[in-house]
Design brief:
With 222 residues, the protein is mainly alpha-helical. Helices cover 68% and strands 5% of the residues.
Length: 222
């Protein structure tokens, strides 16, 4: 388990437990820590140069997030990805994203809309230069910014949790250039509705976007 690529990416302004939690969470989302991989707390303590107390605290939080599992005689491992549950994940995301887009069209200020436009341009640029490895992170930023425009923290939290699950799934079912171009085109439809401040159109565009992704990503796995 190579931690050198991710253990140093979180700014040193949080608690030790927060540092470990966010580092592990990021590594799991990106597939740097794979399903079933064992988490060695002694090794983590040495890597971060801290005691095992904040390590245990971070692990408990990740267990509550269902990203780690602890079993007798097996220790702590990265939680498996339940492909059968992905249909439910996309159904939940479809409902939440539609609500988020509807509220964002009503409430989003110009600064946040400009941020969405900036992320959309970055996604276009990444596609044009073939930097597909950037797309998952940019996609998460787009939907997080959209959720922020809805004005309710709970919707942002739910969006982030569902995005994390889907990012983990996409490690096992990678997206290609054509897939990401569809995503960006669908984002464009959502943005157009937001520019018009049209809640119904924004909700419909978001629902269609997630529905399209569900058909491609989930159905092809069965």
């Amino acid at each position: 388990m190579d931690r050198t690529s991710w253990a140093e990416r979180i700014p040193a302004v949080k608690s030790k437990a927060d540092l470990v939690y966010e580092s592990l969470r990021s590594a799991i989302a990106k597939g740097e820590l794979r399903s079933g991989e064992r988490i060695n707390m002694d090794e983590l303590a040495r890597t971060f140069g801290i005691s095992k107390i904040p390590i245990r605290e971070a692990v408990k939080r990740l267990e509550a997030d269902r990203l780690l599992v602890s079993r007798a005689h097996a220790g702590v491992t990265v939680a498996p990805i339940d492909v059968a549950e992905m249909r439910g994940v996309f159904l939940a995301r479809e409902a939440i994203e539609a609500l988020v887009a509807q509220l964002a069209a009503e409430r989003m200020d110009d600064a946040r809309l400009a941020r969405l436009e900036e992320i959309q341009r970055a996604m276009h640029d990444a596609l044009d230069t073939g930097e597909l490895e950037r797309m998952a992170e940019l996609n998460s930023r787009f939907h997080q910014a959209l959720a922020g425009g809805a004005g309710y923290r709970v919707l942002g939290d739910l969006t982030e949790q569902l995005l994390l699950t889907i990012r983990r799934y996409r490690v096992t079912v990678p997206m290609g250039d054509r897939d990401w171009r569809s995503v960006v085109a669908e984002h464009g439809v959502i943005l157009e509705a937001l520019r018009r401040r049209d809640p119904e159109a924004a909700a419909a565009a978001a629902r269609a976007h997630i529905g399209s992704q569900a058909v491609h990503e989930v159905e092809c796995a069965f």
